[in-house]
Request: fold
Amino acid sequence: MSEIEIREAALSLDAVEERTITGLAVPYNQEASIGGGIQERFAPGAIDSVEDVKLFYGHEEPIGKVVSGRETEAGYEITAKVSNTARGEEVLTLMRDGVLNKFSVGFMPIEQDSDGSLITRTLVDLKEVSVVPFPAFAGANITEVREDQLPAAALETQTEERDLMSENMELEVRSVQDEVAELRRVVEAGLTIETPKVIGSEIRSQGEFAKKMLMGDADAIELARAASTTANTVTTAAFVGQIDNLINDNRPALSAFSRAALPGSGLSVEYASVTANTLSVTAQSPENATLAFGNLTIANTAASVATYGGYTSFSKQTIERSTVDYLNTVFRALTIAYANATNAAFVYHVESMDYTGKVFDVSAGTVAALIGGITDGASSIFVATGLRPEAIVVSTEAYKFLMTIVGSDGRPVVLQDGQGFNNVGSANLPGLSGSLLGLPVIVDPAMTANKAYMANSQAIQSFESAGAPVRLTDGDITTLTDSVSVYGYMAITTPFAGAIVELDTVA
Reply:
């Protein structure tokens, strides 16, 4: 069977009744980058069924099931039932608070059209819908979240039943259901599915991959080559995706903004930057009067492509005799170091921008100052670009300041734990995240102390080489030593400078 592909999209929500959520899972005719300069969109009618489609949290943990689906002009709308589990309750709370406000779908491609740079999915087999923090598509919206509590006796019964099923059993059941659903669809439709070639399927981890690479294994070399391509008929080993997750988990600021694949050649990336917008549309009065005039000023700008990398060396004895776990630890550390380096470069770019006239004061530490500063900042972004803020990205110190603001009665205005009232947000200390006035708060320890920014994700866009970090090896036969490096290319652009503002948290 083909590997399940993952695509993400933004969502918003409103609280009503019962434990169901309804909204667009797949927006139609909306393009999104999937790497290597390739764009993807879903055509109307691409989703044929929601049979056996599960609802997941972050593509990892089942929290319910999709109960219905229908076609709309905007895309494919689903309604899902959230199970009354501890994780289901947590996800519902995070959705109500606006912290989790994205959809992501897992699917198997069946039919598509391609012109080389754009893939149009005309038929896919939907496997799962997940609630996630960050999007690839920006058009899916949850319109309803309904809650309803089960009677205590029913809840106890449900808990007992849930405890009987282990995590491994759940994964097994899901796998069998997916295979049966796919086989049924193929038989009924008489389709022939092109199964992508899976490269490196026997390689289970970075360490095993590194060991095989250093020993000249042909499968490992082919996997290294394939990981830096975007061929639709090629599927790489599962651990490659785990590397991507590891990188993104260590780049909070960079991951909060728009990303795209770096072009295949060139030492710089040219892009259009909106520097001024005086466009105006007004009512014509009288009918023969001159229409309103304005200009959109766009600057053609270029961002340099920088190289980020590092290396280490192993003796032949280490390579041939050490355990995979040892090499896995080394490469995990190198991967994290790459993520930290590229994120630090991104943070430096953010902090080096000119925020003249775009600094909004919340430093008084009062509810009025907090709401006023965020509201004024949001208005500034909208007036300058027509975009709306999507997130607040903060340093550790700014996070502590914002999350500990109290009202005139001395009560915290940010919900810390349990139930509260008169709250303007929530805090999640283990996840170093939260929300303020419906905006996700993302903490990046790499940011300078007390720095805080509110932005639309389109304000800054990073371009990164496919498959980064790439691995290279070189050996010295005279010392029986092999060196291995990880590296990648990245350029950082600012297409909408007006879509990011600074929040002053210093009293």
